Amino acid sequence: MLAIFNKGLVKPPQELNSPASLASSRKPKLPQEILKDFESSNPSNSFSISFGDVASLAYIPPQNPYSIHQRLFCGLNDIYCIFLGSLNNLCSLNRQYGLSKGTNEAMFVIEAYRTLRDRGPYPAHQVLKDLEGTFGFVVYDTKAGHVFAALGANEGVGLFWGIAGDGSVVISDNLEVIKGSCAKSLHHFHLGACSIANKG
Q1: Could you count the other beta carbons within 10 Å of the beta carbon of residue 6?
Q2: Domains in the chain: ranges and CATH
Q3: Residue 117: what pLDDT?
Q4: How does residue 43 score in pLDDT terms, banded at 50, 70 and 90?
């Protein structure tokens, strides 16, 4: 998966502004180039959606659809989610939120995010503490200009982030994508961390 957010939408964390990246002979790529490279790695099976120059989301479905480590993409009511991994307690979470049995992890995360946004104030960790499993996700709310990204405490899923050539934040589960795109301005996404950013 790949998510790119303009620096006006998401402020890069200090840890990504590495002095080593300034001294690197390799220059970070621009978002359009990063997205093009990602899509060309699997041209017959990749999917991407862009929101002007503000954000881009890209996704490649898993080779094995029955893998316990799923890759899911969902868009509902101008909210988009890329979900990696699985939730062990999805059935009970769906009951708790009043959702149907057919609701998958990406759909659930969107509903949990909407609850956090609309019925708050709930701190983000309040929603995350109820999630059991191996997971990482990125949510982009196009209307509110929010980005919500998180990684479960179980180390079965890895997320990495870096800074593109124009200062945009790049998030991917593929370390090679980040290394090839962001020069030395990259870092592991912190376990259990979450990020909410607002453009306004």
Answers
A1: 19
A2: 2-198 (3.60.20.10)
A3: 83
A4: confident
